[in-house]
Each structure stands twice: as structure tokens, then as C-alpha cells.
Amino acid sequence: MGQVLPDRILDSRGEYCPMPVIHTKQVIDEMAVGQVLELLADDRAAEEDIQRWAKRTGHEVIHMAWEDGRLVFHIRKAQ
User: What is the domain-level CATH number for residue 65?
Assistant: First the structure.
């Protein structure tokens, strides 16, 4: 897969459950269908929480990886 260029970036480093999910929802709600959000997080719980939230809401996690001690997600808005 080529590099994904996000339409928005949300830095949730330093935030703990449930704030990364809450802020991700707020930003995704402002975006157009098909746009990509890059989410940065360092709360280990976000790894599972964001994936569950995306699955439940129909959005697509197209990338998730630990990079330099932080989680990086790319989430495509589906609806």
C-alpha cells in the first residue's frame, strides 16, 4: 500500500480512555465521506478502543502501527 496522505490530523497523545475515541468521533463527524483522518495516540488502550469504535460505526481503519513510541492510525470516513 502506498503512503496515505491524511485530510486531517488529530494529536491525542497524552490523553487517556475515553478521550481519544471521543475526539476522534468529533473530528470524523466534521469530515466528508472518503476523507482520511490521521490519529496519533500513546494510550495503549487506544489500540483496541479505536478499532472497536471504527468497526461499530462503519469507518475503516486503513493503517495502524506503533511508530516511535506512538500509535498512528489512518481512518477513512465511511458514512
Answer: 3.30.110.40
